[in-house]
Design brief:
mainly alpha, 72% helix, 0% strand
Length: 46
């Protein structure tokens, strides 16, 4: 498993958690801004 695959798994799992907590404001899972936010938040959240 390479770095990109690991990052994608983190983004998907964190994105799912975020959607469950804030259903009224769901970011597009593939938007660049959402990905940047998830990349920034994953290390501190996990």
């Amino acid at each position: 498993m390479n770095i990109d695959e690991i990052d994608n798994i983190k983004i998907v799992s964190f994105g799912t958690t975020m959607r469950n907590q804030t259903p009224s404001s769901t970011p597009a899972p593939h938007s660049s801004s959402a990905s940047a936010t998830l990349h920034a938040n994953v290390p501190t959240q996990v």
